[in-house]
């Protein structure tokens, strides 16, 4: 069993009179990459800053590696942090930026040279040592920032939307690199993002936040397959969300007094039945709209009884045209019930 | 909390010692008579003396006219400036910046050379046998003199406003087939109207507070609010600091209200460009 | 076609305005080189003697030194008072800026002549050096200019993140300020100092009224000369004008360099 490394207990934070974080609790395990995911304004960056020691007033406890750190100043916590704007020091070369923390710790020049050289090699910037930040691309700047934080071997590395200022392609490249450094060097990382795909792609564990509260914590798969409430179902994927009555109209038995909602993930529709037809419900309707997503195709259809549904198929089968009457099937067991 | 205190201490002390305390004392003194008792006699004196009313009248009329003229010229000037190439703009902005800081004693002296009794302008007019030309030592002359720093100031306020107008608007309007006048009256004018009001207020306030240029040109011979305050403090008439305080308070109150109103207009419009 | 016509009109307009505004300055410069220029359209002849006379005049030199001292001390006071506040507003708490907005209209609601009334009322009869009152008051009057210039210095980078990053890397707040903030606002600070210096260097109203002419600065000397010796005064005005011009040119050059840099940086982040 892995051990609990960071624990946040009953964290509340007030910012200019508003309680932006309300009695928050969560735990993070060692050497994992955990993502804080949530819409903007949900409070995820605020929590990250509290862990780093950059918020002035918090209540609750923050335990890192078994020690309470909530009363320590930011410069006493041995935590690394990466900012969205990179926060490189424009007056220092790449080498000096990375060496900054080591110089604060008064390491010898030889040690600094060795450590900085090694970490710059890791992030593949060994030939940029003498460059200045203004001459680097966005992706390179962020790699310098990562190196600068990692060279100090912090207990935990906090990343605050580190990729959101970058182009789509670089983002994917860099997020894979971050995941690779994390696994190769065994760093505990806490990563803030508002991008579901990014969170899904790199995390061991995702903590979804909204409105200052944890909505759900779990592995990417768990969160995607079993959203706990309507917010989660809406936020996390492209799911079809149906009320009890709507589901009943598709021929599924739902108790009369059941007020729950149900989700049908669009990729679970099939064009034909495999196995026992009693296990399936049939949705017949007309294709209203087609979006080619590249590897997949999304169809929006209006069912014969007036429901709007989304279905996704791999982009390798027959394609339907707009207006065509179709029958899609979905396994009854794949319909997921969610609370509020 | 301790950090905050340390950071704001020097600033706070400065504001307290040379702004809040003097202005408050000035306010209180304006309500005292020469013996220190409470009275409205200073204000009474200001409003019932022909001389002091004249000062207020002169200040307001000079400032109003000079700032209106300067407003119009500086809108045209700022518009023209946006049409020029970048390097010319930079040079001209330097020129305007300098001529606005040339105000005061140097400007007064220059104007004497040009328009004084033995000046170039007089020489030209007498050669041409034109008489009754501009007399710089008069209310009209002052109105004229103020334009030398009000116009560059106005251009420097207006230039960023006009420069930041979205070029696409002009193109969209062209595509939609609107005439230039239609576009200016329906789109540009409403957008910059709050800025025009705000800049007019600033130009007016700046003219109202002008002391150095007037004093250097005419000493205390031109009766305006600032020169009256100056002579009341310096004792060139009869030193009467409480009366000076009343004048200064009146000035501050009126200007604060006007600037505040100007800001309100700008904010209500809510489409401020700066 | 219309575009072209616009440009021609713009050029004419700007030329007329510039000629109008520059005419007094040109006249002063011409006057300073003129042998004599009374009641004539052009001067009678040219000479440098007024310049020699002024430069060798000890009154001029001591007035110059006094103005420079005033400028330097005011700049130091203004920096000490305003830099921490502007830093705090930009790095810790942006909401303070809204509360500091009153500063920008200060010179319009409380011009020098009004402020000096209150100052004389409070401090004239107190046993404190009037020089101190003057220095503090000039610092206050320079506040809008200094504040704006310093605030602009913080635009270029995300100083909040940089400062916090330095703390996380182990520095104390003071060290972070010295090592990370100061080096990256030095150009903006320089401009702010230059502007503050200029406004103090050319101050007249406060100096004249508070110190009553006992401390003859360049401007006061200029006023005195104006009453007695036109030619000498025109030389002084010309010198003063060139001083302003040089400072303006330095600032434009610096801002231009900064501007180019910023454009490059924006290009960089887009380029990746």
Automatic annotation (TrEMBL), chain B:
Q: Do you know which SUPFAM superfamilies this protein is assigned to?
A: MetI-like (SSF161098)
Q: What is the protein's membrane topology class?
A: Multi-pass membrane protein
Transmembrane regions = 7-31, 51-79, 91-116, 136-162, 183-205, 241-262
Q: Which UniProt key words apply to this protein?
A: Cell membrane, Membrane, Transmembrane, Transmembrane helix, Transport
One Gene Ontology cellular component:
plasma membrane
The answer, when asked if Transport is one of the entry's keywords, is yes
Give its localization.
Answer: Cell membrane
Gene Ontology process terms (BP): transmembrane transport
Q: Where is the ABC transmembrane type-1 domain?
A: 56-262
Similarity comment text for this entry: Belongs to the binding-protein-dependent transport system permease family. CysTW subfamily.
This one is known as: ABC transporter permease
Name the species this protein comes from: Liquorilactobacillus mali
TrEMBL record, chain C:
The name this protein goes by in its record? ABC transporter permease
Q: To which protein family does this belong?
A: Belongs to the binding-protein-dependent transport system permease family.
Q: Origin, by domain of life?
A: Bacteria
Q: Taking every annotated instance into account, which residue ranges of this chain make up the domain ABC transmembrane type-1?
A: 64-251
Give the record's membrane topology: Multi-pass membrane protein
- Report the InterPro entries cross-referenced here: MetI-like, MetI-like_sf
Cellular-component GO terms for this entry? plasma membrane
Q: Which PROSITE patterns does the entry link to?
A: ABC_TM1
Organism per entry: Liquorilactobacillus mali
């Amino acid at each position: 069993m892995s051990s609990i490394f960071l624990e946040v207990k009953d964290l509340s934070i007030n910012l200019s009179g508003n309680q932006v974080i309300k009695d928050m609790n969560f735990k993070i395990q060692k050497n994992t990459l955990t993502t804080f995911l949530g819409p903007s304004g949900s409070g995820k960056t605020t929590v990250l800053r509290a862990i780093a020691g950059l918020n002035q007033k918090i209540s609750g406890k923050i335990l890192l590696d078994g020690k309470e750190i909530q009363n320590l100043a930011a410069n006493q916590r041995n935590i690394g942090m990466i900012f969205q704007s990179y926060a490189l020091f424009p007056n220092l070369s790449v080498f000096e930026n990375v060496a900054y923390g080591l110089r604060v710790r008064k390491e010898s020049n030889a040690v600094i040279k060795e450590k900085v050289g090694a970490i710059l090699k890791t992030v593949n910037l060994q030939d940029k040592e003498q460059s200045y930040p203004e001459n680097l691309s966005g992706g390179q700047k962020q790699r310098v920032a990562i190196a600068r934080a990692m060279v100090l071997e912090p207990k935990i590395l906090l990343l605050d939307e580190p990729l959101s200022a970058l182009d789509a392609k670089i983002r994917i490249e860099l997020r894979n690199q971050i995941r690779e450094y994390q696994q190769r060097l065994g760093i505990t990382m806490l990563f803030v993002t508002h991008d579901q795909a990014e969170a899904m792609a790199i995390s061991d564990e995702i903590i979804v936040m909204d409105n200052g509260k944890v909505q759900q914590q779990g592995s990417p798969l768990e969160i995607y397959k079993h959203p706990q409430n309507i917010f989660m179902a809406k936020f996390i994927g492209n799911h079809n969300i149906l009320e009890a009555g709507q589901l009943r109209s598709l021929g599924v038995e739902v108790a009369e007094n059941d007020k729950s909602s149900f989700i049908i993930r669009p990729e679970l529709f099939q064009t034909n039945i495999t196995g026992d037809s009693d296990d399936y419900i049939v949705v017949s309707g007309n294709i209203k709209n087609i979006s080619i997503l590249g590897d997949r195709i999304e169809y929006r259809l209006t069912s014969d009884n007036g429901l709007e549904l989304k279905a996704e198929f791999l982009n390798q089968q027959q394609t339907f045209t707009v207006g065509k009457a179709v029958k899609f099937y979905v396994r009854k067991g794949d319909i997921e019930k969610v609370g509020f | 909390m301790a950090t905050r205190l340390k950071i704001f201490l020097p600033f706070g002390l400065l504001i307290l010692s040379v702004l809040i305390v003097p202005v408050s004392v000035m306010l209180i003194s304006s309500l005292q008579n020469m013996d220190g008792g409470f009275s409205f006699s200073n204000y009474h004196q200001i409003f019932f003396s022909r001389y002091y009313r004249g000062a207020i009248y002169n200040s307001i009329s000079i400032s109003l006219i000079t700032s209106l003229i300067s407003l119009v010229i500086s809108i045209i000037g700022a518009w023209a400036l946006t049409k020029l190439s970048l390097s010319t703009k930079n040079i001209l902005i330097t020129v305007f910046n300098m001529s606005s800081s040339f105000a005061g004693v140097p400007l007064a002296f220059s104007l004497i050379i040009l328009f004084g009794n033995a000046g170039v302008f007089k020489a030209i007019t007498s050669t041409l046998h034109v008489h009754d030309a501009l007399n710089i030592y008069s209310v009209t002359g002052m109105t004229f003199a103020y334009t030398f720093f009000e116009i560059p100031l106005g251009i420097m306020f207006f230039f960023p406003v006009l420069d930041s107008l979205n070029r696409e608007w002009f193109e969209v309007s062209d595509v939609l087939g609107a005439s230039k006048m239609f576009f200016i009256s329906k789109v540009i004018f409403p957008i910059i109207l709050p800025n025009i009001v705000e800049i007019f207020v600033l130009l007016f306030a700046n003219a109202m507070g002008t002391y150095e240029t007037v004093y250097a040109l005419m000493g205390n011979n031109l009766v305006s609010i600032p020169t009256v305050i100056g002579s009341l403090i310096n004792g060139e008439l009869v030193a009467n600091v409480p009366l000076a305080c009343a004048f200064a308070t009146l000035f501050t109150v009126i200007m604060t209200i006007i600037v505040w109103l100007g800001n309100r207009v700008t904010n209500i419009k809510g489409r401020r460009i700066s | 076609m219309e575009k072209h016509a616009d440009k021609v009109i713009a050029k004419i307009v700007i030329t007329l305005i510039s000629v109008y505004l520059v005419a007094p300055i040109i006249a002063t410069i011409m006057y300073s080189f003129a042998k004599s220029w009374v009641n004539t359209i052009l001067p009678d002849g040219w000479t440098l003697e007024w310049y020699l006379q002024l430069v060798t005049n000890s009154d001029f030199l001591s007035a110059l030194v006094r103005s420079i001292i005033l400028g330097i001390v005011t700049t130091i006071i203004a920096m000490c008072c305003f830099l921490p506040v502007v830093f705090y507003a930009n790095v810790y708490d942006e909401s303070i800026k809204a509360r500091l907005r009153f500063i920008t209209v200060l010179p319009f609601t409380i011009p020098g002549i009004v402020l000096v009334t209150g100052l004389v009322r409070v401090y004239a009869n107190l046993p404190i050096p009037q020089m101190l009152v003057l220095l503090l008051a000039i610092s206050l009057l320079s506040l809008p200019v200094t504040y704006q210039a310093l605030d602009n210095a913080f635009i270029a980078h995300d100083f909040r993140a940089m400062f916090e990053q330095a703390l996380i890397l182990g520095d104390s707040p003071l060290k972070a300020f010295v090592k990370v903030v100061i080096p990256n606002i030095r150009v903006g600070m320089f401009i702010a100092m230059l502007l503050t210096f200029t406004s103090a260097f050319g101050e007249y109203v406060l100096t004249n009224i508070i110190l009553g002419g006992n401390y003859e600065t360049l401007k006061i000397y200029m006023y005195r000369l104006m009453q007695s010796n036109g030619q000498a005064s025109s030389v002084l005005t010309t010198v003063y004008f060139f001083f302003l011009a040089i400072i303006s040119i330095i600032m434009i050059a610096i801002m231009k360099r900064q501007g180019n840099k910023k454009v490059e940086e924006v290009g960089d982040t887009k380029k990746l």
